[in-house]
Structures are given as C-alpha cells and as structure tokens.
Amino acid sequence: MTVSHTYEVFLKADGKGEFRHVGALGAADNEMALMLARECYCRRGEGEQIWVVRRDDIAVSDSTVTEPNRHKPHRHNDGKRVAEHRRELRDGS
Amino acid sequence: MTVSTALSDGVQEYLLAFADDEHMMGSHLAWWIGVAPFLEEDLSLCSIAQDELGHAIALYQLLTDNVDHFALRRDANEYRSCSFVEVAMPKWEDTLVRHWLYDIAEHIRWNALVDSSIPEVAVIAQRALTEEAFHRSHSTLLLQRSLSGSADAKSRLVVAMEMLLPQSMAIWSPVAGEAEAVVQGVVTQASAEAALAYVDAVKADLAGWGVDVNWNVDEAPEGDRLLRTEGFNEFQASLNLVLDLDPNAEW
Hints:
- Chain A is α+β, with helices and mostly antiparallel strands.
- Chain A has helices spanning 30-41, 63-66, 80-91; strands spanning 5-12, 20-27, 49-54.
- Chain A has a single domain (5-91), classed as Phenylacetic acid degradation B (Ubiquitin-like (UB roll)).
- The mean pLDDT of chain A is 90.
- In chain B, helix 1 packs antiparallel against helix 2 and helix 5 (92-111) packs across helix 7 (151-168).
- The mean pLDDT of chain B is 94.
- The A-B interface holds A 1-2, 25-29, 31-32, 35-36, 38-40, 43 and B 38-41, 43-44, 47-48, 134, 137-138, 141-142, 145-146, 148-150.
C-alpha cells in the first residue's frame, strides 16, 4: 500500500551557499519526493542541488531545551566593551 | 527561428503533426492547474505542460513567423494532431495513463530527430530529450506508486490502460508528408518502425510493474490525423477565449 509522507525540501543555489529550507511536500518515497521537489520548488532553476528529508526523520526539540538559554545577557556581545577597551589602549589613557 | 534549408511541403506537414501533438498535450495537461488531486501534481503537471508547449512553439517557429496565430487560429482541417491527444480526459487516471504513454512515444519521436538533416530540428530534439527524461521519470514513478496503492486505484488504472492502449496507436498514424521527411533524412525512423519500439517499451513497463492488461496490438489507424475528434472545436475555442477578448491586443 502506498502511503504519502511529508517531506521538508531544501535547496542549495550555485556556488558556496548553504542549503536553505524552501517548503514541504507529500510523496510516497524519497525518489518521488525528489521528483516532485524538482517540479514544485526548482522549476525556474532556483537551486543547483535538492535535499528532501522525511519530516518523521527529523529530531525535534521542545521548548524545555531552549528556554534556559533565553535569559543570558552575558552571552550577548555587542562589541561596545571591546571597542571601548581598544580606544583606551590607543589613546594611552 | 531562421531555417537554413527550405522545407518541402511534406517535411512541413511532418513537423506540423508533431508540433500539433505537443500543442494539444501541453494544453490538456495545463487544464489540471488548480484542480489536480493534490498540489504537488498540480504544479508538476503544469511544469510538464509548459515543456510540451515549449516544444510545440520551437517546431512551429520552423514553419511560421506568427506562432500564436498559427497555433490557435487555423481552421480545424489544417491541424495534423492525432485523435489520442485531442480528446479531453477529465478523469485523473486517464490523464495519468495518457501522460505515461505519450511520453514513451515522445521520447522515441525526439530520438528519431536528433540526427536530422535539418540542423535546427536536431538542436530542438536534443534540448527536448533532456526534458523528456524527467517527463518519463515522472509518469512512471507516479504510475508505479499508484498501482501499488489500493485495489480500487489499481483497478481504475487498469481500466484506463485497457481503454487507452489501443487509442494510443493513433500517435503512429503517419501524415502523407512523412515519406518525404524520411527520404530527406529529416527523421531517421518511420512511424511504423517507431510503433514497434513503442509497443516494446510499453510492455516492458507493464511487465516491470507486474500488471496484466488486455491489449491486442493493432496497427496505427490510417488517416487519423486528417480528422478532428468530437469536441475539437470547443477545445480550440477554449484556447482562444482570452485572445478573443481583444484580437488586436499586443502581448
């Protein structure tokens, strides 16, 4: 029995760019998913390479994994203190 | 496109028949935009339709300077399309089976043009074949998966095959000009010979899928391309709907 699976589709443009997520589609298997991804997301040559990944095969976190890292301002560096330090060294003050 | 060689009437008729087939198939496939059973196929079929229409335009450009008028405004008796591509197929299973059969045939037809004595035809054929590989792949992948679906899906597809396999032989109904095209080396394989390769390829696919279909292979019907099928005028009128709004508009 043929079953449709949801696939996430990624495209990589020419050159050294990274793969980027462009959408999803339903397909029976990997081969069919690549064929449909070509027609649905790359019909104007938007990508040089295509990845399709079954959504079921993606490991997904929940918010408990990311939540503790949301309030850590000490891990944000806007460069002001480094710039200030360099200015002090340059000015000799 | 400027053709380096003057085309004889017979050669023009031969190229016209192929162009009209591509035109009809592309137009019928494009009908599915917005109404295909699922979005992915909606888009895929329309991409393929655009390719087929592109092939038609490339061939029409060898025959006329006014492609739109030539493609859409001729009298019905001036078309040379075969009956198999003219009829509307609003059932999804019929469309899928026709797509599969037509693209097997199309692949064979373009292959017979890659060594054409007319360089412009050879160039078009080479380009078309790169696209046809994907059309073939698309139809066979989808059909194979659909045949392994529910018993109802398989049964409907087999009914469609048994209806369309005999009808598909009309693709190989030659126009009178074909003999001239063969003699001049415009095409390297006559329809009768190509039909044999077609039957073998179809049977190979069916065997690979383990599908038994009743099909008594007949020869291509004679004179098929000189007759328009029922509904042709309405279909042609539907293709002209927008153009008729303002026939003098420039696009």
